[in-house]
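Extended Data, panel c. Modelled sequence:
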Amino acid sequence: MIEHHIDIETADGLMNTFITHPEEDGPHPVVFFYMDAPGKREELHDMARRLGTVGYYVVLPNLYYRELREFKFVRDDAGRKRMFELMDTLTIDKVMRDTRAMLDFVDLQGAADASRLGALGYCMSGPFVVAALAHFPERIRCAASIYGARLVTDLAESPHRNLEPIRGELYLACAETDQYAPSETIATMESALKDAGTNYRLEWYPGTHHGFAFPQREGLYNHSAAERHWERLFSLFGRHLKTAS
């Protein structure tokens, strides 16, 4: 495996980014991996590596780059307060500008086949991958939102209000108990997906809580559910990214 820590130039500055991909047999289909609220960290690097080892060129940016290059989340009241402050600095418009920069970047990389591109987001980035499917329907073939939060809001840019342009497949994994994505929110989202005619699959993960896929999320990590979500990701990306057309 090859790894890089690079800066991608965006409209708003330099976005520090982790890249991983196989050493040989490229170019490789691309997966944009959007971080969750605790930030880009080694736990996510390891998850990106797992994708990379099965043949993908994975791009994992620090979406907080406008504020800081590294965020070390501390699990106390002050740490959670700071995390939500950073989370609230992001908007779909900002992250779509970042996505445009990521597209421009991978278009120039010899190891990346940017004609075969998918997206993956957890928690706060669930709405970002849905928006990416809608904003770049000609580029992004599929996306997965894993216990995505804020999929339904009162804002005009809310993902559930902007599904019509989507051409690719959307997968949504939902925790059974999730204060950030309660069942009523998911029901509204699914109704909007049906009304828009979106190609989607929504699955509930029984016995799980928000964060179940993260190995270092003490008390929440659910190994069997996490492995199920990996199976679904490999299937989704395999169907849409492993072929040339």
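The two ends are 26 Å apart (CA to CA). This feature is highlighted in the accompanying rendering.
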